[in-house]
Write a structure and sequence with these properties.
Helix content: over 70%
Distance between the termini: 44 Å
Largest sheet: none
Mean pLDDT: 83
Structural class: mainly alpha
Number of domains: 1
Length: 309
Amino acid sequence: MMHLLICILINYLLVMVAMAFFTLLERKVLGYIQIRKGPNKVSLMGLPQPFADVIKLFTKEVSFPSSSNLYPFIFSPMMGLALALLFWSLYPYSSPLFFPMYGALLFLCISSLNVYATLIAGWASNSKYALLGAIRSIAQTISYEVSMALILLSALIILLSFNLILMTSSQWSSISLLLPPLFMIWFITTLAETNRTPFDLSEGESELVSGFNVEFSAGSFALIFMAEYTNILTMSLFTSVFFFGMIPLGIFTDIPLVLKTMFFAFLFIWVRGTLPRMRYDKLMNLAWKSFLPLSLSMMILSTSLIIII
């Protein structure tokens, strides 16, 4: 039991380190996209920049709005980061310590709880701007959760398993090649699920004075920031697991999975450096009038394929 606990803690620690350097990668890539240098002043080529940011944020004075609901205000960023880290208990290791049999269902359960962290953060701030940002973010998340669940069901119908470890160890074909529209809708949905450009309306500075997190600062803001970037790596990982086949290579199965996860994380940055923010009404129309009917059609098609085969 103690051995398992230590391994889980090491897993979470390594995820936090990966998230820290992913923020550095994003700043570097966005810098070169905009024909400028990224962070390069801290030590060697700016490599310790994430650690400098962490020290700065967590040593600043934490301020609380006088009219805020204090305990939910403190709890919501912690909840967001805890849920983001909980996803990584499902990582499909080639030689795991424990086998979550229904990992895909647990993924859906955890992702649906992320809405509550945003809701509590906006409500507990007791600010009109924060509450408006939280409501918009919840409406956006719910609209995409429906289509995301249907897309995932379509993939699971083809994979015939809920076990992520079995998916990575015995999946020879790629669903992205079998049903390319399904993969495209999934990737766009993950952009919206993680509040990334062009769907970063819950944190739209020009519209909402930074949205639901406007009253957070110092360490509490850092926790929200860390949760968002951890979720990007999480969605990149599950995109690789669900939609891209994995050739079983024994102990080397982890290597292609890590490379594919890094590739999809890079796509998140590329999209941010390329596309402008979408208008809110067009976003909701895209979710309810385009993605929902299309994801339903894909689920019917995937069911038909399994029956025919």
